Amino acid sequence: MEPTAEQQAAREAFAAGQDLALVAGAGTGKTSTLVLMGASTRRRGLYVAFNKAIAVDAARRFGPNVVCRTAHSLAFRTVGRAFQHRLDAPRIPAKQTAHILGLVRDLDLGGEKKITVSHQARLVMGMIRRYCYSTDQQVTARHMEPVNGLDGEAQAYLAHHLLRFAVKAWDDLRSRDGRLRFEHDHYMKLWALTEPSLGADFVLLDEAQDTNPVLEEVFLAQDAQRVCVGDPAQQIYGWRSARDVMTGFPAQHLHLTQSFRLGPDIAAVANRWLKHAESAMQLAGHGPADSRIESLTHPDAVLVRGNADAMAHVIGYLNLGVPVALTGGGTALERIAHAAQELKAGKRTSHPELFLFSSWAEVQEYVQLDTAGADLKATVDLVDTYGPDTILQAVQRLAPEYRAKVTVSTAHKAKGREWDTVRIGRGFDPPAGDGDGPGRELNPAEARLIYVAVSRARHRLDPDGVAWIDAYEQRRAGTQQPLGTLSLTGQLKHPASPVSQFMHTHLPASGNVEHDYLAHLTGLPHPVQPLDVRYPDWTALGHAIDYRLRLSFGGGLGVAVTLGVEALLDDDLFTAGPSQAVRAAVHDAGRDLLSRVKEHLLDPGRSSEDDLARLCFVASFYEDLCRTGRLRRYSMLANPAYATPATALDDLTAAVPAYAVDDIHQQTRLARQPLAALRALPAEKRICGPLFTGSTDLGGADADFILDGLLLDCKATTHPRRLGREEIYQLAGYLLLDYHDHHKINKVGLYLSRQGALITWSVPDFLHRLGATTGLPELRAALRTHLQTATG
To answer: For 437-467, how does the pLDDT look when each residue is reduced to its tens digit (9 = 90+)?
Structure first.
């Protein structure tokens, strides 16, 4: 086939040597485009595929200059081969794993909650698996998977208890003489830790929207031309830690929108869901001309939300005598049915999701009363509706796909496949409504999953299971906040917002600054972070280090904290609680906090580092109240253990967890050397929390610091490589909103507080790299006109 204009543009951009993000919609010929790229050069290329079958198929299509591999095969070649003898070893029972790890007694969590050594061993090895998927350098408590039946406090205690055994497990696994079961993900992680070079002139990463973070880190670190390809709107594996490499990738972004799978009518349905998935892409249907939307009695495939939904359809077809297949088989449902039988008989089960429960009634109570059990509810309802015996019989009666009249599949397992006729089945429920109001907004992740489902059909699509979209869109019509009223950071998240449109037009080359930023990361130490905590409060920690740095520059906490304190007296915000007496006490504690900070600024020697860290952490919850307009579920200001009619500031500071104090201390120590010269500036040259003349032309914009003309934003991220376009444009936005040059900004920069790294650019260099074609005064004037016109 002749390449389309879009494919030709991608080939030309690749031939020019540019890094490239190729956004390829469903059925748009992404592999063909990659083959065109490889054929346009004699350079050595590497195509990294999602699995072995894709790699083998691609190898038949690419020329001899492109090697097609999976990430695991690359890792095996250089690291895994040395562990071949461990890969070939037989599996070992959980009790033996526990013995190797030194787990010798069951763990009593109170009541009847007891975790056996075997289940502890399984959880430890699960921590290792999640660690291997991550970019983390060390195993941490937060790598423990959630355990059904435990509250947050018990989860945190269990994770802390198991951490030392997980560290011991990793020590065993990285030794050639270790005794634990060694798996492919283990050598993949060991390989990534060596910071490998892939030895190619260009690297093509397929399915880049669902990449394990460990592979993402390797890909981004390559000193080669990098091309990532995929469809961010098909990013549906975030729940198992997969990452979308493409969206923030500093490269030229091109699109493939001509779908050869979807006809015009089905493409129109897909486009509807793309909008709800927050994708700017719209597909053009160039597939079968006879494709259409209609009700289907006998579809080739029924696509559903989850396993429980799938089994409901399977049982329905079996009752009608229709041979039915289930994509992936029925093993998962078989295991849950056996577990239900055991629990109904009063026995314990080894099922990893149910091992803590002593009866089926306890499982039922958990999914009804505990929000953490929401993911289990559909499965429990299925067992209660049909019974475990019926489910087991249905699994036994499943047909292989080649003999089935209909295939039932979850949307996740349908990804990458297609059928002539598809019906959308159960489980894709609309967002909950709120009385007569517009109801909750559709989660973009759910919209992405539905987009994947509807785009599996070639000739006929029956969207019965998502027919609620019409009523949903009618309810939501006119309720969206105008993009022009969002804050600077809020607008940068929306490509159609006035700020984003201005940046795209006037400062189009953010990738140049992103490349330079990433180059500065080479050789930096790994970020400091809490290791032995299951649920660090990252938002509070980020605000707290910002406050602590402000105090070190002689500045206060900022106006948002003060507004959050005063918001507690606004009865209209708290119709659902907490009580007026509790809010009055927490308000007084906040006023006391502000007074203590003021006293510290007058006499910096009077407060210890521990006191300051605790004050800063508590202050973060007052700011969160100001920013969100509510006390969120996990706010310490809403926790009845801390927030009572008798609460005082000392009660709140005493409740600050030790890990938070330690973390703030670590970041404070890291800041001493890189920020020393800035702290020594005269007071009038140190501005904390600056506002700008143009802040009122949008929904607000307040930066972290301006220090002798240096506009500086503090980032407390544990993943500095994930900073990119939005953070660069955030700096540019602050710079341009200073319409009259009131702050005399001559440099801009980012401070990475968890690495102690200060990265700066002069304003002329920054704007030049961004592709500005006019001077700073002209850009400021243009932005002012643009924003004022956009908001009327």
So the answer is: 567 889 999 999 999 999 999 999 999 999 9
Spatial distance between the Cα atoms of 230 and 227, rounded to a whole number of angstroms: 10
Dihedral pair phi/psi, residue 504, rounded to 5°: -60, -35
Sequence ranges of the domains in the chain:
5-79+194-256, 83-188, 481-528+680-792, 534-656
Contact 747, 677 (CB under 8 A): no
What is the C-alpha to C-alpha distance for residues 631 and 622, in angstroms, rounded to an integer? 9
Q: Residue 314 gets which letter from DSSP?
A: H
Determine the length of the chain. 792
- How does pLDDT run across 413-430, given as a tens digit for each residue? 999 899 999 999 999 999
Counting DSSP H helices and E strands in the chain, the numbers are 32, 21
Evaluate whether 605 touches 612 at the Cβ level (below 8 Å).
Answer: no
Cα–Cα separations (whole angstroms), residue 537 to 162, 457, 542, 620? 20, 43, 9, 10
Q: Which two tokens stand for residue 701?
A: 């914009």
749, 728 Cβ separation under 8 angstroms: no
CB-count burial class (<10 Å; 0-12, 13-18, 19+) for 401? middle
Domain 5-79+194-256 has CATH 3.40.50.970: no
* Amino acid identity, position 21: A
Q: What is the pLDDT of residue 698?
A: 94
pLDDT of residue 241: 75
Asked if residue 622 lies in contact with residue 637, where contact means CB atoms within 8 angstroms, the answer is yes
Question: Which of 395, 402, 455, 385 lies closest to 424, judged by CA?
Answer: 455
pLDDT at 514: 93
User: Measured between alpha carbons, how far is residue 742 from residues 344, 693, 710, 721, 745 in Å?
Assistant: 72, 8, 13, 32, 8
The per-residue pLDDT for range 642-674, each reduced to its tens digit, is 899 999 999 999 999 999 999 999 999 999 999
pLDDT digit string, tens, across residues 703-734: 999 999 999 999 999 999 889 899 999 999 99
Provide the whole-model pTM. 0.87
Determine the residue type at 608.
S
Q: CA 473 to CA 548: how far, in whole Å? A: 45
Report the pLDDT value the prediction gives residue 434, as an integer from 0 to 100: 53
- Are the C-beta atoms of residues 169 and 179 closer than 8 Å to each other? no
From first CA to last CA, the distance across the chain in angstroms is 49
CA atoms of 768 and 16, how far apart (whole Å): 21
